[in-house]
Amino acid sequence: MKKIKIESKFIVYDSIEELTIPVQKLLKKAAEAREKAYAPYSQFLVGAALELENGVIILGNNQENASYPSGLCAERTAIYYAGAEFPNQKILRMAIVAGSTKNPTTKPIPPCGACRQALSEYELKQSNPLELYFMGTSGEIASSKSVENILPWVFDKTVL
Ligand code: THU
Question: Ligand 1: which atom is nearest the Cα of residue 77?
Answer without folding.
Answer: 3
